[in-house]
Amino acid sequence: MAVLLYNMVPRGALLGPVILAAAGLAIVTTTRGWWSSRQLWMFVGFALAVLGAMVATRRAVGTHDLSPIQRLFGFLLSRHVIYDLDAEAPERLDVAAVLCKVVIDLRSAVAPRTGPLEIVASSVGGRIELALPQHWPVVAGRLAASRRVRLDGFVDHADAFDDPRSPEQSQLLQDLEGEWQERAASDDPATSVVVHVAGVGGSVRVRGR
Question: What is the pTM of this model?
């Protein structure tokens, strides 16, 4: 059980450990009959205030992670991650939502140095929303690993790109990027976004499409 909980909590996150600590405190105080202690209730009230502040402040988080592969995880409590202005998007972004809502806002980001951007969206009864620049074309990727997970929003190509880095599919994506670049008349380079969907139950939505 300890190993499972350790792997579920995202690295560098404080919210998950705080919840686990609060649950452990509740178990200990219940078994020892400490609930009537005035000092305990003062501690619980202070802990809840700190937890509320953490939830409020982590709804909008700028990311400075320059890793080509990034992972974001949400469990029970919603997450809202906003990429800073001109922050470079990763080449691959793994997003998981378990019984919660996770919003990824890449509208201010710039294209990765080597595209396309692959987003692996995994949902277990959750909801994932992707906010992307208007001139980034979106296509569906691998969908076979999903069970009752909806991909909402329009995609810009009828085919699914299960291997976007293969020569054939890579050329199709480059042609699509060129079309969208001319249509948007933007100085910022366009990059294709390939959305792979996995999990059981929930939805993955591309905003504005």
Answer: 0.69
